[in-house]
Amino acid sequence: MKPSIQKLYNIFRIEAENQFFNRAVIGGLDRILERWTAEARQDKLDEALILEVQSALQLYPQLSFQERAQTLENLWKTLQSTADDIPAFPQAAPENIAKPTSQPKPFSKTAHPKQTSTSLEGQLDLKALQASITVLPGIGQKYANVLAKLGLFTLEDLLYYFPRRYDDYSNLKPIHSLLYGEEVTVIGVIQSVTERKSPSKRSIVEAVLSDGTGGIRITIFNQPWQAQKLQIGEPYAVAGRIDQYLGRLVFVNPEIEPLDKELLHSGRIVPVYRLTENITQRWLRRTIKQVVDRYAPKLVDYMPASIRQSAQLMELSKAVYQTHFPDSIENLEQARYRLAFDEIFFLQMGVLRHKYEWQQRPGRPFHAPPAWLDQFKASLPYRLTQAQERALHQALNDLSSGRPMNRLLQGDVGSGKTVVAAGIAALIAHHNAQSAIMAPTSILAEQHYRTFLKLLATLDESDGSEDRQDPVKLPASAIRLLTGATPDSERSEIFDQLTNNQIKILIGTHALIEEAVQFHDLQFIVVDEQHRFGVEQRALLRAKGENPHLLVMTATPIPRSLALTLYGDLDLTLLDEMPPGRQPINTFVVYPHERERVYRLIESQVEQGKRAFIIYPLVEESDKSQSLSAVEEYKRLQEEVFPNLRLGLLHGRLKADEKEAVMRQFQTGEIQILVSTSVVEVGVDVPQATVMVVEGANRFGLAQLHQFRGRVGRGNDPAYCILIPETADEAENERLMVMAQTQDGFVLAEHDLRQRGPGDFLGTRQSGFAQLRFASYTNLHLIEKVREHSQALFTEDPLLEKPEHRLLAERIDRFWQETTSDIS
Q1: Strand runs (DSSP E) across 382-500, as ranges?
Q2: Mean pLDDT across the chain, nearest whole number?
Q3: CB-CB contact of 645 with 673 (8 Å)
Q4: Distance (Å, rounded) from C-alpha 666 to C-alpha 678?
Q5: How many CB atoms are located within 10 Å of the residue 85 CB?
Q6: Which residues contact 310 (CB under 8 A, 6 or more apart)?
Q7: What is residue 597's DSSP assignment?
Q8: Residue 820 has pLDDT above 80, yes or no
Q9: In terms of Cα–Cα distance, which of 699, 683, 549, 555 is closest to 617?
Q10: What is the dihedral of CA 165, 170, 176, 182, to 10 degrees?
Q11: Other beta carbons within 10 Å of 251
Q12: pTM for this one?
């Protein structure tokens, strides 16, 4: 576009955004004619065209608003007929720019003029975007090396290098109505320019901008070239935050652009990108603009048209463009919504595909005879809750389906997950096959071992009272424990008995995945607290059987939005009912200066034969943190606070056998108060423990605090959880107060997700998922909407083999190659 035409376009756009009030140029649009005519003749515009512009603008001040709009639009159509590169007439802005809303409005079909290409001709193959950024004009190896520090190597990298934030300079205002602190763009003429040095020899350029309603001073530090660049009498767009100096409003280091060029740094919503050394924001913005202008309109939309239409999504090309250079806040919201939709869609299609592929494998069916099931339930020392009955029923259906079970069993601490796993393992043993139960810590593995013995083992084989006719019970020797602390002689015995199928259930830690552990016929795997294991560890255990049935268990409540997205490959079972007799745990948030009251509560409980935990966020004192540490506090508590009580110390730096010794002492009562770090989060079942004190509670997530709380109240006595934050900060304590208000782990998990993000829930499962750029795991509305569309498409074409789904399949493959996948 020729400079004289570009200048008219900018003026007409500003005029349209100002509702045709004749304010785009100081004194009125007709004031530009003399200078513009000279520039137009320099550009060799047709004289008849110049004359038409002059005639129209000379009459402009005398026209009504409607006539002005019509005049400019007609004039622009005439200009458009003279060249192919002139865009459509700028649309008038609404009186008030729409503010962001939580849910974007449906996609408007009014497309940006530069992004309307939808025909296959001229559309861009993804491979073309793999060209090096050095193909761009002005980018040699020097700049390529700089951009490489930002991870930018190809045209595609630049196209998808989205802004980290935006400066909204679309608010055009006359100088007389400016207010301190607002971010605006002002159109005016430079009246004067001076340069001086500060006492510290810094360059200070000062200019005065006037627009007919007033004048404002512009101060520019350390940019001496601006004194030559700014031309007196020329119109400029100046954008920035209105500051104040000696009682007068001023601009300090604003963005300044001449009006005869397309406004990129002012007069619009301006993107702000992450930078590195040796490049400026303006340079990077210009570089990205040329890539976006050229390549975004050619992007082929991989999303099927039916989904775009029904989900009311913006076209991909427009979404990419508008995310970089939005025309309005509304368009920006719609663009970001489209890209967020895509991210969640890729995730869900990926997990559905994993589930589909897993379900195509054969799994050995195991049927539970009704008599056997009745006998199993009758053998239990308690009656199953309805939730446990439901979970067991779902698992047995899986086992009989002929496909390998792939189920996530989630339930609060103490909800009875283990008995469900034990029932399935008993059925597998009934069919003469084997099971493996893997726990993250030896303490938890030991606890499972004891529970399995209690539920499934006959009485001591040596006393001759065992009933070998019982189809549910197993000899105690058929249930074994394998951890890192298991003696070599016992390990050899376990390995032998596994291969000859004497051992039906092996419970242990990571030791289960050792190469020496070989099963005769492994058909069922339980992974407890699955997020604490890595991909390879779970895969290694699975490889020890042939498509074994899998049950993963977690006591960490997973918010519904996360469960729908991250665990879509698993069937979900929720234990939402606690066994009868469990009492709510009295939870209090106590200020640090009230600590003595807490100590007296502990003393009184210990005198009644109970035990207490005191949790600290650190093992030892640190120069980098003011938090209390377990080691130092253990010494102080033992010597100064509880000299007559028996205290123990537990933390992650102890050796495994030392930790087990401490826990055993606590379980037997040799230790009355256990001072610990977060290592007690899982796997500690001490019914006599009635007090849980968490120091530095503000440093833990609510879900983790809920886990701590679950360590007490496992008996029939009233239990207490005391949370002591490090400060009396009101906001932080308000977060902790939620703990006192509810015992519902899912409510707490939702709070945690909103406040701390998904990190606490991801574990090692899908760490790459945390890197979503547009989508949020807290946006349940979006996630459910995407799930509806992804499931419908998956039902229609699970492997995306139809020609119209080819591009989408490629895009999903690329997404999953870039994402750390940890599907169970």
Answers
A1: 406-411, 434-438, 479-482
A2: 83
A3: yes
A4: 16
A5: 8
A6: 789
A7: H
A8: no
A9: 699
A10: -20
A11: 23
A12: 0.67
Q: Residues for the chain: how many in total? A: 824
Between CA 710 and CA 417 the distance in angstroms is: 14
- Give tens-digit pLDDT for 768-814: 455 678 888 778 788 889 989 998 999 999 889 898 898 899 888 88
Structure confidence at residue 105 as a pLDDT band (50, 70, 90): very low
Three-state secondary structure along 574-639? Answer: EECCCCCCCCCCEEEECCHHHHHHHHHHHHHHHHCCCEEEEECCECCCECCECCCEHHHHHHHHHH
Please state the separation of Cα 789 from the chain's center in Å.
21
Return the structure tokens found at 500. Answer: 């000859």
pLDDT at site 116: 36
For residue 762, what are the contacts with CB-CB under 8 A and spacing of at least 6?
531, 566, 769, 770
Closest CA to 495 of 543, 536, 544, 535: 544
153 Cβ partners below 8 Å, 6+ apart? 132, 133, 144, 147
Predicted confidence at residue 422, as pLDDT, reads 95
Helix/strand/coil (H, E, C) string of 356-367? HHHHCCCCCCCC
The reported pLDDT for the residue numbered 338 is: 96
Q: pLDDT, tens digit, for every residue of 620-671?
A: 776 666 677 888 899 999 999 999 999 999 887 887 778 878 888 888 899 9
Task: Locate 450 and state its tokens.
Answer: 């004891």
Q: Describe the crossing of helices 417-430 and 370-379 by its angle, rounded to 10 degrees.
A: 130
CB 448 within 8 A of CB 425: no
Please state, for a pLDDT cut of 70, what percent of the chain lies above it.
88
- Annotate 710-747 with b (16+ C-beta within 10 A) or e (fewer): bbbbbbebebbbbbbbbeeeeebbebbebbeeebebbb
Tokens of 18: 């100002």
CA distance 266 to 94: 19
pLDDT grade, residue 517 (50/70/90)? very high
Tokens of 551: 């049950």
Q: What would the pLDDT profile of 390-432 be if each residue is shown by its tens digit?
A: 999 999 999 999 999 988 898 877 788 899 999 999 999 999 9
Separation of alpha carbons 625 and 606, rounded Å: 32
Q: Which residues of 601-628 are buried (b: 16+ CB within 10 A; e: fewer)?
A: bbbebbeeebbbbbbbbbbeeeeeeeeb
Kindly report the number of other CB atoms within 10 A of residue 204's CB atom: 16
Task: Give pLDDT, residue 415.
Answer: 81
Mean pLDDT within 679-708: 83
The residues near 471 (Cβ < 8 Å, ≥ 6 apart) are 372, 375, 430
Other residues' Cβ atoms within 10 Å of the Cβ of residue 62 = 9
Are the C-beta atoms of residues 415 and 390 closer than 8 Å to each other? Answer: no
Residue 751 structure tokens: 């709070």
Give the whole-angstrom CA distance, residue 332 versus residue 338: 10
pLDDT, residue 150, reads 92
Helix (H, G, I), strand (E, B) or coil at 183: strand
Distance CA 671, CA 266 (A): 69
Give residue 283's pLDDT.
Answer: 92
Two tokens, residue 235: 């119109």
**Structural contact between residues 697 and 689, judged by C-beta atoms closer than 8 angstroms:** no
Residues 6 or more apart in contact with residue 55 via CB below 8 angstroms: none
Torsion angle, CA of 478/483/486/492, rounded to 10 degrees?
A: 60
Q: What is the pLDDT of residue 673?
A: 94
Residue pair 218/207 in contact by the 8 Å Cβ criterion: yes
Parallel, antiparallel or unpaired: strands 255-258 and 235-245: antiparallel
Rounded Cα distance, 238 and 190, in Å: 10
Contact 528, 438 (CB under 8 A): yes
Q: Is the pLDDT of residue 579 over 90?
A: no
- Phi then psi for residue 426, to 5 deg, are -65, -40
Nearest to 115 by CA among 88, 97, 93, 136: 88
Lowest mean pLDDT among 317-326, 369-378, 679-688: 679-688
Q: At what angle do helices 329-359 and 780-796 cross, to 10 degrees?
A: 50
